[in-house]
Amino acid sequence: MQLKKILPLAAIAALLPGLALAQEAEAVADAMEAVTALNTEMVFIMNSLLFLVGGFLVFFMAAGFCMLETGLVRSKNATMQATKNVALFSLATIAYFIVGFNLMYPGDWVIEGWLGGISPTVLEPVGVELADVDDVEYASIGSDFIFQLMFCAAVASIVSGAVAERIKLWPFLVFVVILTGVIYPIQASWSWGEGFLDEMGFSDFAGSSIVHAAGGWAALAGVLVLGARYGKYGSDGKVTVMPGSNLPLATLGMFILWLGWFGFNGGSQLAMGTISDVADVSRIFANTNTAAAGGAVTALILSTILYKKPDLTMVLNGALAGLVSITAEPLTPGLGAATLIGAVGGVIVVLTIPLLDKFKIDDVVGAIPVHLFAGLWGTMAVPLTNSDANFVTQFVGMAAIGIFMFFASLVVWLILKAVMGIRVSDEDQVTGLDKTEMGMEAYPEFSNR
Amino acid sequence: MKYIIAAIKPFKLEEVREALTSIGVRGMMVTEIKGFGAQSGHTEIYRGAEYAVNFVPKLKLEIGVSDAMADQVVETLQKTARTDKIGDGKIFVLDLAAATRVRTGETGDDAL
């Protein structure tokens, strides 16, 4: 990085041999100063641009989650699912700005390496100059905030799919506020806020554990406290199939998530001001894409072998599992390794979706197999291609994140259950949450009033 | 007058409509239905869980015809809707008490 900054200065120095000696020294000094300033500005601008482009790509993942979930729930619960997705994103935005962002990136730790302090996010002033920006070697606060916020909201989106079709709206939203304002930021500060996991050398590039498994753990705790949908599991262990209402919509959701993942992983390079950074971002794009393909193809083939016909919903989950798997290390693998890492993610979802049913864990959209199980795999796969990481540290990080996310979420879910009640009554579940909780149907023309 | 109710395989609809029109049937009602007969369903797998499809999609045709035409309509229906495979459907014939054309008020065979 330093060497690269000096190289253009040396070139300019070489272009000025004809000047008188005193003048020459002065001119070279002036030129060097100008180039340094220009280079600093360029790095700052490009880094901020990466965050902004990455940020709006990851923002679109909110739409992806919403479409995927709305397509995989029954039509009588579609309005509720869409409402939850809009509300959770908006609440996450507010919670993250009021406490989350600074809790996740603590200037001053309350407990060194473990717990940051609480303060709202403050942006740089209007029209800020080079000399006055918060971190001139990084990026603008606004771009960093908007980028990191999207990750935080994604954690909440993961939970909403798993608990669909039987959770009450308001207790869910209270959980979202606590999750996005407090639980996730504290956990993420351990790694991305330069806390104790970062100190140990835990490596999770864009968040297989920090974001995806974290959301998966919170979802698992929620599903366990909430119980399965009414009628999902018979007393004899029989599973009642509740098919999704709109598979094209779910497929659109998957493709939107796939698109958003370029920002998710690519933006997590956190820098685009040098040739090597841009080349790395490009590598990450290519690896992210191929891992999704690996997951999708594997799920397509495996579901066909196991069940005689391909299962589209598993192919969708397979692509997403591929993406989650590569998220912990999208930079160091080659295309072949990235495909294989994604492919293992595809195997994981196809095998664990029916497994959850055996344990009567009712995960409506497959959020736990995709985000939790593939996230754990992705975290442990980092040392396969990145020699700076090791399995022991990866395991410690994965376990620390898992224990905290699961139990913190469990406590909040249990309190909400005791105080507000979180489960919609069996009768109302049969009628559908759109009618009973919302009084508004997603597809009113097609139902008997 | 007779009232003919038939359950047929959905893909046969167009063929049946053409055959009935060619013998002079001037209208019918079509409804998408589900039901079971000798075919009695099958199993499918969704996200790894097996489930029974107990009711198979069919189309229900309802046709009002004059007594003179009834036999010919049933025969045509049976011939065109047939695939020789299980699940081809059923045809029922009922007596029809009255018929009225809404636009003109015509009744009986004239209304059909």
UniProtKB/TrEMBL annotation, chain B:
Residues recorded with modification O-UMP-tyrosine: 51
Pfam families found in the cross-reference section: P-II
GO terms for biological process, alphabetical: regulation of nitrogen utilization
Higher taxonomy: Bacteria, Pseudomonadati, Pseudomonadota, Alphaproteobacteria, Rhodobacterales
SUPFAM superfamilies the UniProt entry points to: GlnB-like
Keyword vocabulary terms for this entry: Nucleotide-binding, Phosphoprotein, Transcription, Transcription regulation
Molecular function per GO: ATP binding; enzyme regulator activity
Keyword Transcription regulation annotated: yes
SMART domains in UniProt: P-II (SM00938)
GO cellular component, one term: cytosol
Family: Belongs to the P(II) protein family.
Superkingdom, natural source: Bacteria
Species per Swiss-Prot/TrEMBL record: Roseinatronobacter monicus
Protein name per the record: Nitrogen regulatory protein P-II
